[in-house]
Write a structure and sequence with these properties.
41% of the residues lie in helices and 15% in strands. The protein is α/β, with parallel strands linked by helices. The protein binds nicotinamide-adenine-dinucleotide.
């Protein structure tokens, strides 16, 4: 039996990277996937999927749009079993460098975007007395990173948002967990990859001595979305090749 048979899964940030990997993995496990994003993925990313995912346009920082889209999903499919909030953007800058508008946009997309999606899906999940929400933190929400203020703060906020939702809605059998990826090669981190030396250094800080792939994150999201994780809630799970385990001061033994 497919692990998400008969489940309806809504995924934000679904057109690219980790969100798109979740679309593909979840659909392969039988879910009816609804992908939400500013754009759509290339058609060849979707043609082999059955059931075919539905893609709808959404700016996650717009609450009215989010509410309308979630209503549309419920009207069409009758339920929402899984929500993945993967929409996100990167930014750079310290407190004295970052433009206020950039800071605001980061919080709007990462924190408000996650909250809006959750709060317009939760009433349906509570009514169903079941649901699994998977948010996206980061290793930089667990520890900080230089020159990355808004991202660090937004991702740190996701940790507490995730725990708060798990506390408030667990009574209705709604599970809420978050993933904290390490360096994953996606369009978001393409600028890291362009600097080969920096990419190699960053990758070497992961105990597996490499960057991760989007499907390696989607596999963990699949577990959390499935009934196999029926007693897992309120957790931020690092999918980081051991990055958050600690520091390595000497090169790894050959
Ligand atoms: N790639 C990594 O190394 C890494 C590490 C830790 C955490 N993350 C987090 O994982 C999530 C996915 O990242 P990714 O690497 O797949 O990025 P990505 O850039 O490949 O994909 C992000 C998607 O979000 C969409 N998006 C951006 N703003 C949006 C908005 N306002 N409304 C709707 N959609 C919007 C983009 O269009 C894009 O399709 C993000 O939350 C990111 O912060 C990524």
């Amino acid at each position: 039996m497919a692990r998400l048979h008969n489940k309806v899964a809504v995924i934000t940030g679904a057109a690219s990277g980790i969100g798109l990997a979740c679309v593909r993995r979840f659909a392969a496990e039988g879910a009816q996937v609804v992908g939400l994003d500013l754009g759509e993925p290339a058609a060849d990313q979707l043609w082999d999927l059955n059931p075919a995912p539905l893609f709808l346009r959404l700016d996650v920082s717009d609450e009215a749009q989010t509410q309308a889209v979630m209503q549309q999903v419920v009207e069409r499919y009758g339920r929402i079993d899984v929500l993945v909030t993967a929409a996100g953007i990167a930014s750079q800058g310290s407190a004295t460098q970052i433009e206020t508008a950039t800071w605001q946009r980061m919080l709007d997309i990462h924190l408000n975007g996650c909250l809006f999606a959750c709060r317009h899906v939760l009433p349906q999940m509570v009514e169903q007395r079941s649901g699994s929400i998977i948010t996206f933190g980061s290793i930089f929400g667990l520890q900080g990173c230089d020159n990355n203020l808004a991202y660090n703060v937004a991702k740190g906020g996701i940790n507490q948002l995730t725990r708060s939702l798990a506390i408030d809605y667990g009574h209705a059998n709604v599970r809420v967990n978050g993933l904290c990826p390490g360096l994953i090669d996606t369009p978001m981190t393409s600028m890291v990859k362009e600097h080969a030396e920096f990419h190699a250094y960053f990758a070497s800080q992961h105990m597996l001595s490499r960057a991760g792939r989007p499907d390696e994150v989607a596999n963990v999201a699949l577990f959390l979305a499935s009934d196999e994780a029926s007693f897992v809630s309120g957790q931020m799970i690092a999918v980081d090749g051991g990055f958050s385990a600690g520091r390595r001061f000497a090169p790894p033994a050959a």
